[in-house]
């Protein structure tokens, strides 16, 4: 028989840890969502242009550390909604992420012929980054969460919700891939018409994005998740980071259409108040002169 005291103590400990993690994120929102992507854009472009010495250029530990920091608001924000069922669905998505990428590298399907030109940390089977789920799954989650907020009551429709989220995932890659090719993360052979990216890549993203969105939709109680997204002001800060990092790189390399798509995500974030007053308020003095609210 379960010990109610032990269960209560466990839940209390989990709640205390959750509150502490949320406090850390809130107190460092600007650093996480603005400073880190700005520094990331500068160092990645400097690496691509040969302006950094070899220990720093494309340093995989720095890339992984920066990515984990920028992902932290999303992870902390979602933690209260991740139970065993959600964990299982995300586990299936993780396995699928590795599988489709390995198939893509070995067979050129479904994305087209491409190869990683630098090591983004340890490589699984020497072919794909071990941290691939850290790079891919949050993009799908960000697209899905923004979809729920933007659609509002329309998100009750399964078809509208899924199709819009898939479109958002593909739009994210319209920003990501041109910038990643520009700074030498990977390359397509032959180069495609969209800033070096072939149309086949986006056909592949429709396929992989559809599977990923369906698994995310299955993973969570949508109403509970939407309530969490509405009340947790920092949960989409990872998408803010994404727009600033990859949008800036696209601007610097003159990928104007890709930068324009990043601008559309900016509009969505503004509409949902995610470039919000609270983030700005952390930098400004309050009316009583004692500094920003926490």
Automatic annotation (TrEMBL):
Transmembrane found in the keyword field: yes
UniProtKB keywords: Membrane, Transmembrane, Transmembrane helix
Bilayer-spanning residue ranges: 29-46, 52-70, 82-100, 130-151, 158-182, 202-220
One Pfam entry name: Caroten_synth
Protein name as it appears in the record: Carotenoid biosynthesis protein
Repressor as UniProt keyword: no
């Amino acid at each position: 028989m379960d010990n109610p005291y032990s269960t209560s103590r466990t839940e209390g400990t989990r709640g205390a840890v959750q509150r502490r993690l949320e406090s850390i994120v809130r107190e460092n929102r600007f650093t996480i969502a603005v400073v880190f992507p700005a520094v990331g854009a500068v160092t990645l472009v400097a690496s691509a242009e040969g302006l950094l010495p070899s220990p720093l250029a494309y340093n995989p530990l720095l890339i992984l550390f920066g990515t984990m920091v920028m992902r932290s608001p999303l992870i902390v924000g979602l933690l209260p909604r991740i139970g065993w069922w959600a964990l299982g669905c995300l586990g299936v998505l993780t396995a699928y992420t590795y599988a489709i990428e390995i198939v893509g590298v070995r067979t050129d399907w479904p994305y087209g012929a491409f190869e990683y030109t630098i090591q983004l940390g340890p490589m699984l089977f020497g072919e794909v980054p071990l941290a691939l789920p850290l790079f891919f799954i949050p993009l799908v989650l960000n697209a899905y969460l923004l979809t729920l907020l933007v659609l509002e009551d329309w998100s009750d429709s399964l078809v509208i919700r899924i199709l819009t989220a898939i479109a958002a995932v593909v739009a994210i890659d319209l920003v990501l891939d041109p910038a990643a090719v520009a700074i030498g993360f990977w390359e397509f052979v032959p180069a495609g018409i969209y800033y070096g990216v072939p149309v086949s890549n986006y056909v592949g993203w429709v396929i992989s994005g559809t599977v990923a969105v369906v698994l995310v939709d299955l993973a969570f109680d949508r109403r509970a998740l939407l309530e969490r997204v509405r009340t947790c002001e920092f949960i989409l800060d990872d998408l803010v980071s994404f727009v600033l990092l990859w949008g800036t790189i696209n601007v610097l390399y003159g990928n104007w259409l890709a930068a324009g798509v990043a601008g559309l995500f900016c509009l969505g974030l503004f509409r949902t108040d995610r470039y919000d007053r609270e983030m700005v308020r952390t930098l400004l003095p309050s009316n009583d002169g004692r500094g920003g609210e926490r």
